[in-house]
TrEMBL record:
The lineage of its organism: Eukaryota, Viridiplantae, Streptophyta, Embryophyta, Tracheophyta. It comes from the Eukaryota. This is F-box domain-containing protein. InterPro entries: ARM-like, ARM-type_fold, F-box-like_dom_sf, F-box_AtFBL13-like, F-box_dom, F-box_dom-containing, FBD, LRR_dom_sf. PROSITE patterns: FBOX.
Amino acid sequence: MEPSRLSPEAAGKPQGLIAKDRWFSIAAYISSGEGGIAAALRKHVEEEARHLSSEDLLSVMDQLYEQISSLLQSNDATESLLALHAIDALIDLPVGGASKVSKLANVLKNVFEVKRDPEILVPASTVLGHLANAGGALTGHEVERQIITTALGWLGADRVEYRRFAALLILKEMAENAFTVFKNYIPEFVDVILKALSDPKLVIRERAAEAVRALAHSNMQAAADCGVKKVKREGIDLISDLPDETLCTIISFLHTDDAVRTSALSRRWRHLWRSAPINLDTAHIPGFCPEQIEVVTEILSEHQGPIRRLHLNSLYFADLDGWFRSPALANLQEFDIYVAKFDDVLPLSVLRFAPTLRVARIAHCSFFEDEEVPVFNFPYLKTLVLGFLSVYEGTLHSILSGCPVLEDLLLDSCDGFRRLVINSQTLRSIGVCNDMGSMSEIVIENGPCLERFVRSDLFRRTSPLRRAPVFRVISAPKLAILGSLTDNVDKLKLGTRVSQEMVAGNLEMLMRGVKVLNITSSGPNLDAVLGFLRVFSFLEKLYIMSSLQKDMQNVHHHEPTALIESLHHIRYVELKCYTGTDSDVDFAKFFVHNAKALELMKFVVEGRCTQKWRTDQYKCLQFDSRASPNALLDFRSYSGHAYPAGCIRRGNHHNEHVLSMANPFDSSSCSHCRDA
C-alpha cells in the first residue's frame, strides 16, 4: 500500500492548493528496498513536474533534500542506506539541474565527514561516482574539484583511519567517473597515495590499491580513445610524465592483464612492466588451464622484477614446486592458492615465502599431513586464511605460534583438529566458518587485542549427534563482536545459569565489552536467550537465528526484567527466520515491551510479507504498549540467494570479509550479499 502523500496541513486546504503542499515521505519506504524507493520517487517527481511551476518544483525538491539529510543524521544504518538509495534515484531524474547536483554533492560530502561505518561509506561512494558521472557538465566540474581536493587533504593529513578510508573511496570513484578533472590532480594523488599503500590496516591498503587501479585504467582508456598526438597535445596521459619508480609502483597494483597492457600505451611504458613489481593472478589471465599454466611459467622464468602477489586457482597438473622455487618469488608478500585436487600435497617449498609474507590464503589441499611438522616462522604475516583443508591440531597451533604479528585469522570448512586454542598478543579478528563438526572446544586463552570472534553455520543439517563445541573465554578484554553461539537447550538450566558452552570464572566481568551478539536458538527459546543477556550486560545489537521447535512456551517466569541490565542498552534486535507463530510472537513481544532503549526490531521472514500480515503482526505484538517510544518494527522477506544467516556463507574468499566489515551479522553491510 502506498503511503499517504498529504501532510496534515494540506488536508484542510482547497483542492486547487494541495499541489504545492503534497508531501512525500521517504521514510515510509524503509521496508521497500532500493527498487521501491526509486520507483516511488520517480512517480512522485514526474507528477509534481506536470502540475507545478519550475519555482514550485524546486521547493518540492528542497523538501526531498531535507528529508534525505534528516535520514542521514540517524544512527540507524537502515535509514542512512534508504537516504542513499533516494539520492541515487534522484540523480537520473531530469529535474533540478546544476542546483540538484550541488546540493546532493554537499549532502554526500557531509556523509563522508560525519559517518565512520564502512557499511554506509562504501555505498555512499558508489552514489558519489554516479553523481560525478551524470552531473559534471552541469556544474563545470566545480563540484568534483572540491570533492577531490577535500579527499586529497584527508589522505595527506595525519592518520585518521575513517578519514583515510573515506578519502580512498572518494578518489577511486572520481578516478573512474570524473577523470577529465581527476587527471589534473595526478601529481598530488601520487604524493599521498604512497602513505595509504603502506598503511598498517589491510583494508586501507586494499582500498588504496583499488584507487591506483582505477586511475591507471581510466588513464589507459583515455589514451586508447585518442591518437598519440592528441594525447600529447591535450595532456590526457599525464601519468607518463611521472618518474619510472612511480610508474613501476602503479603497475605493481594492477591486475596481471592490465599490467601487460601498459606496454602497449607508448614507448615510454614498453619496458616498464617487465621490471616492475607485479601481481601474478590467474583470475586475470585469459584462457583455460593449459594456457594459464603456460603464461605463469613464462612470467616466472622471464619477468625481471619481483612478484609481490601470487594467486593460483585450480590449475591442474601445474608444477607448483618448480614455480615456488622461482627467483621471481623471492620477496613474495601475498600468497593465495586454491589447489585443483583436494588430496594434492602443498609442496614444502612454499615455506621459502615465510620471511616476507604479509597475507597467506591456502585452500583445498593436503596440508603438511605426510611430513614431520616443520618449524613455522612467519615474522610479518598479518592475515591467515585456511579453507577447505584438513590440518592436524599440532600443525595448526604450531603455525599460529609462529605468527607473532598475526591480526586476522579465518578457518573456513577445515577439520582434523578438535581444539582451537588462541593465545596471541596481536590477533584482532577470528572467523571459524563451517567447522565440519570436528571441533569440541574453542579456547580464548589470552587475546588482549581480540575484538571479534565470528563462528557460522550452526544450523547445518548434519547428524543429530553433532554437538557445538564448548566455548571457553579466559581473557579477551576488548571483545566487542561475538557469535554465533547456540543456546542448545539440553546444556541450559532454564535461566538459572548460562549455557555450559560459556565456561569461565566471572563471565559477566569478562563480557562487559561485547556490543554485538549473534545467537542461534531452538524455538526460539526466550529463557535461553535471557541467560546470555544476563552475561552481556552492555549489549547494543542482538541477532537471533531461530529454528522451529513445537510446544515452545516463551513466557518469562524468572527475576524482574529490571534486573537484566542489557535491556537498558539494546538498541537493535533482529529475529531471523521469523514465522509469526505464537511462540515467535511471544518471544518478540518480550523485547518490544521490555527493551527500553530499542530503536529498531527487524524481522526476517521466509516468504512474502503482505501489508495485511504486517498489520496483524503489529496487533499481535501489542506495539502500542512498547517500552521504547522511539522503537520501530521492520518486516523483511527473504528468498533465493538472500539467506538470512548473515554474510558468512559463500566460501573463504567471501567469508574473509567478516574479519573486517563493520557488522558480520548484517548482510546489508556486505556488497557481495547486497548484489546477490
